[in-house]
Design a protein that fits this description.
Elements lengths: L15 H17 L5 H8 L3 H13 L3 E2 L9 E2 L13
Antiparallel strand pairs: 1-2
Helix pairs in contact: 2-3
Amino acid sequence: MPELVVEKDAQPSFIAKQGQYLSYIYNYTQIHGRPPAQADIQSFFRVTPPTVHQMILKLEKEGLLARVAGEARSLHVLIPAEQLPVLVRP
């Protein structure tokens, strides 16, 4: 009997809120020519600084976002733009 081979889904896996953060970071970078500061993300999503920081750490841990520790505005989305959701203003 042949062995069943299941291919892994090529789509990145993230929850809706994570997708919105990724989409915001990507779109901000495209518009302004540089990544957003954490304060920009905080203002857009109307959340506290610790909330933004924790989300960035989670996205980085899951391999969806990269940054240079200690360097301002170093966020870089690691998934293709076509896989990002449409950004919705909260």
